[in-house]
Amino acid sequence: MSLTSEQLISLKQQITSWAAELGFQGLGISDIDLASEEPKLQAWLDQKYHGQMDYMANHGMMRARPAELVPGTQRVISVRMDYLPEDANFSQDLSHKTTAYISRYAMGRDYHKLMRNRLKKLGQKISDAVEHSVQFRPFVDSAPVLERPLAQKAGLGWEGKHTLILNENAGSWFFLGELFIDLPLPIDEPVEDKCGSCVACITMCPTQAIVAPHTVDANRCISYLTIELNGAIPIEFRSLIGNRIYGCDDCQLVCPWNRYAELSCEDDFQKRKQVDGQALLALWQWDEATFLKQTEGSAIRRIGFERWQRNIAVALGNAPYHTDIIQQLKRQLTAASDLVKEHILWAVEQQQNKKDATTSDSKNKRLIRIIEKGLPRDA
Prior knowledge:
379 residues; alpha+beta
């Protein structure tokens, strides 16, 4: 049994209401035509901007063809869930170079399962509301899906120059999820790009990863380097990472539209004390068992203990000089993997260079004081 246009319009209104009840802050519906995205995706892959993220290329153009991923799909329902926690303390954590900075999306519980379960409930509500079987499938970063172009087509926002979706009422501090469905629901219209001439995200990126408007070279991106990259972090980027040990929010922090962002109402997205405002040296003391326990249910756990140590070692190398840092770094050398050991040795060298610079500077200042005391008053 097929639904009439009036029934589909009414159903869409119900879907929007159900989505709000399930905790989604935005919903839009798009068709599945992403043909215009295929050349962009292929050019990005040809430039090797995906780095080690082979999954971006493994499925060919299926990522831009929803009906190949889920046969029978006619529409994609895109949803938004805000994640900005209370007391985000961006400036405090970034300015205190001995404090670990973790991207705010990862401060709470892992969003993947939470959103997928709610999308599944939304699909079930839709299925229960119609008189015939409805095929649906939820996705939250779990399959080859071009979630941002779909969200843009669905009117949830526009693609900023940093490639994140921007909403004029919510900025970019939100997760996206999709529900593929075989109903010809009414679609929403895309919204106007409102970035204008602003290039704040491009100019403020620490590693200049935004190589052109709407194009990110993942190989240079701190989020990629600290989360996705399996091996050694290239030396040229280590000092630029600062105290960021998991992800980076800089391009969002400088975006003018994020002054309108709403705080998350989800308890699961609030900051966990295990990782909130923690000293780098405190996290450096964790063994693998502690890491697994303290990151249970967190997106942070996905990088594993080795990359966790690698990232903290780099941040300790970037911290202001302190004898405790050198001692604690050297103490881990024996047990460290070859990957972590490489970054420990780099960090020790950075700390030693700062010590030498501090000693030299002190000597220079002392020499100047001695010279000034011996000079005639009219010199």
